[in-house]
Amino acid sequence: MSQPLRLGIAGLGTVGTGVVKIIRQKAALLAERSGRRIEISAVSARTREKDRGVSLTGYAWEDDPVTLATRDDVDVFVELMGGSDGPAKAAVEAALKAGKDVVTANKAMLAHHGQSLAVMAEASGAVLRFEAAVAGGIPVIKALTEGLAGNEIERVMGVMNGTCNYILTRMEDGGLSYDEAFAEADGLGYLEADPTLDVGGIDAGHKLSLLAAIAFGTQVDFGSVELEGIGSVSIEDIRQAADMGFKIKLLGVARMTGRGLEQSMAPCLVPASSPLGQLQGGTNMVVIEGDQVGQIVMRGAGAGEGPTASAVMGDVMDIARGLRVSTFGRPAGALARAVPAKVSTPAPYYLRMALVDKPGALAKVAAALGEAGVSIHRMRQYDHVDESAPVLIVTHRTTRTALDQALAAMQGTGVVLDSPVALRIEEV
Amino acid sequence: MSQPLRLGIAGLGTVGTGVVKIIRQKAALLAERSGRRIEISAVSARTREKDRGVSLTGYAWEDDPVTLATRDDVDVFVELMGGSDGPAKAAVEAALKAGKDVVTANKAMLAHHGQSLAVMAEASGAVLRFEAAVAGGIPVIKALTEGLAGNEIERVMGVMNGTCNYILTRMEDGGLSYDEAFAEADGLGYLEADPTLDVGGIDAGHKLSLLAAIAFGTQVDFGSVELEGIGSVSIEDIRQAADMGFKIKLLGVARMTGRGLEQSMAPCLVPASSPLGQLQGGTNMVVIEGDQVGQIVMRGAGAGEGPTASAVMGDVMDIARGLRVSTFGRPAGALARAVPAKVSTPAPYYLRMALVDKPGALAKVAAALGEAGVSIHRMRQYDHVDESAPVLIVTHRTTRTALDQALAAMQGTGVVLDSPVALRIEEV
Fold first, then answer.
1. A106 in the same domain as A177
2. Based on the domain organization, do B164 and B223 belong to the same domain?
3. Where does L-homoserine bind (chains A, B) (predicted)?
4. Is the same domain home to B48 and B105?
5. A162-177 pLDDT per residue, tens
């Protein structure tokens, strides 16, 4: 058997503790599978004195993660602290510069600094892996980077924030309002300290930007992800969508088009009978479409100690086995700067609006759509509420540009009350 | 860039041709991703003169795959001929003995000779990969061997024969009898030359035995897979199952128990609302359950040129990138001889039988179950047909042994007409 692989682990929260447990409890199994003993040389965390339910005996302690990352007895630096900048980034950079391999679960750091870290890794010959950063326990980075490496990827989609999917599922199943479902999720401890990371789509957007980089060979470009949170999704929309055979999901979609890279993380309608439509609660799902393989769907837990630690260990085991793949599946220098494109691949759209309850109002709306070249697939006017007439429209495929033009023209007619809701129907 | 990786491809059917096309059409992409040019040195097939829709110019031709496999200008032997023995096995053995890496889609060969081939590969330091042998384009071998390498695997399940799932789906959706659905699948060219490979569960059983070897670290033991085809599934059972919220699938299940390794490939009931229950038509699905990751579900095309070629190329790209994992995820010598166990993990069962239409018949059946310790969860007697009274029973969890004892006792009472149908309900 070869030399042991020696880890330095920074961050001993749920995931870090989970990793330590696996390494302690499955030592023989891991050694048999990888051909090397997996050992922990040193650990680091904010607080040393704390009962984490696992013994840290035999591991050196470092207060400073940078010092940990560059220790002579550390082959792989495992970064589980989190935070896009600050100590996590400093320690990862120090490790890479010192030629240490790095395994991280830090989506925010990679979404913001993925390219520079990939360049740094390449310069020193280090490997930087991040399976745990996307969709928890689902080995999707591996599938996309390695298993499907013979494909040109056409589209990547994902429901990758379990908290949002939980909230949307509870609104649908439990008939809760957004605020009620949000409060329930909060009570269960599902929300990040800054909840906009979840419900604003930022966390899921980070993940999408990483998948897009691998899929399309572009530098990570989180800044260009069109982000729309779930705060504007109403129980009314969920009901109406369900009535027409759809579910509303916070769906990430990335595709390369002739105009550039489209990346969006927004509430979308998907067919209720599709795998994405059937996804309930906190589970994650990633859909990859390749020119050879067709559609691959992967489903599993997107968070939690076990699943995330499983992903971290997958990366550690790969390194132990000698796998050395470029960070985003190609040399950092070969990653093109993404040309961001506004989402404009034609799609059907779901529209909901309230009209003034006067003759001719609906005709004006229909005219505004027609003039912008948006044709109507289904339209439904339903029970009046006070003085307003709620209207639902499903369009045929149209571009977002044409739709926005129609929406602007509608607003000009004076018959539309409030802002219409417009959600893309993603064809899956 | 490193030296090119030179392939010798034996077998130029749909999959082989698909691989050649990918290598010709995506040369730059593959080189960028793997860091090496992927080249074809030589090819071999039964017939040289045949329009395969792709140029073979520039590749040496070998009539004998063994000669091809051992050519000096071949680094990786790609075996796409099929057949568990004969030329495929001879050529793969020759390649491995010569220290050439091998990529194959040949599930039958691996199911029968996986252990000896793994030993052979290890002896010469060669790598033997077979992603395309299981579930077509779904990168499930990679997920199980690498991505989930930090888990103890608890259960592996799969719907892995698209033809069977197509037939069952058509029986359900189209109300066809088994014979009608079989004839339809045959007309569409979905069946193997020997259809028992499909409908007898043999092909899917081969795949299950390979997954089990990786999951549980045991030598491939196809001979111990309990095989039951779909020929005995009636439209009546499909309807009754649906009525109770279940679907019938040809489901492979492997789990390690205290008694040994259980492997079964048999028609089972699964909840209609589960991912397995929702699987329609020819699509494949594999479910992996690990102690850390929980349940991972993977879904995609299980056959066809593009998906299978995608899987072959995933293996080729791994080799180009320098990944060298043991055939079944551990050294061949570390794979334990499987201790096969009859499927006896307690499960609920679905029973359908016809009773003589006489007072006391049902009581005798109930008594037979009770005496064997099998308790009844639901029982339903439905419309009489001629002189017989059809009865449906769903049991609580019981072992197959207790159930068989009850079934034997029932037969002894003389009230049961024909053989009762007994299908396991797999809890997923």
1. no
2. yes
3. 192
4. yes
5. 999 999 999 999 999 9
Tell me, yes or no, whether A162 lies in a domain: yes
Indicate if the pLDDT at residue A65 is higher than 80.
Answer: yes
Contact A312 B32 (CB under 8 A): no
Are B256 and B383 found together in one domain?
no
Q: Which residues of B touch A295 (CB under 8 A)?
A: 300-301
Of A131, A152, A217, the CB nearest to B147: A131
Answer whether residue A375 is part of any domain.
Answer: yes
Q: How far apart are alpha carbons B363 and A29 in whole angstroms?
A: 52
pLDDT, one tens digit per residue, over B166-209 is 999 999 999 999 999 999 999 998 888 899 999 999 999 999 99
pLDDT in tens, A235-260: 999 999 999 999 999 999 999 999 99
pLDDT of B1: 61
CB contact under 8 A, A150 and B299: no
Say what percent of chain A tops pLDDT 90. 92
One-character DSSP codes across B305-324: HHHHHHHHHHHHHHHHTT--
Best of A292, A319, A335 to mutate (most B CBs within 10 Å, chain B) = A292
Domain final position from B133, B161, B192: B133
Confidence of residue A414 (pLDDT cuts 50, 70, 90): very high
Query: CA separation (Å) from B412 to A138, B219, B381, B403?
Result: 51, 41, 21, 14
Per-residue DSSP letter, B278 = T
How many domains, in total, are found in chain A?
3
Rounded distance between C-alpha atoms, residue A114 and residue A112, angstroms? 6
Q: How many CB pairs under 8 A join A and B?
A: 191
Point out which residues pair with A261 in neighbouring strands. A256, A340
- How far apart CA A340 and CA A263 sit, in angstroms, is 8
pLDDT digits (tens, 9 = 90+) for B400-413: 999 999 999 999 99
| B359: confidence class by pLDDT, cuts 50, 70, 90 | confident
**Residue A259 and residue A194 share a domain:** yes
Residue A314 lies in a domain: no
Q: Is the residue at A318 inside a domain?
A: no
Residues of A with catalytic roles:
207
Picking from B132, B44, B27, the residue whose alpha carbon sits closest to that of residue B81 is B44
pTM (predicted TM-score): 0.96
Mean pLDDT, rounded, of chain A: 95
Boundary of a domain, candidates A133, A156, A176? A133
Q: What is the pLDDT of residues B292-302, one digit of tens each?
A: 999 999 999 99
ipTM: 0.96
Do residues A75 and A203 share a domain?
Answer: no
Which structural domain, as residue segments, surrounds residue A75?
5-133
CB contact under 8 A, B321 and A318: no
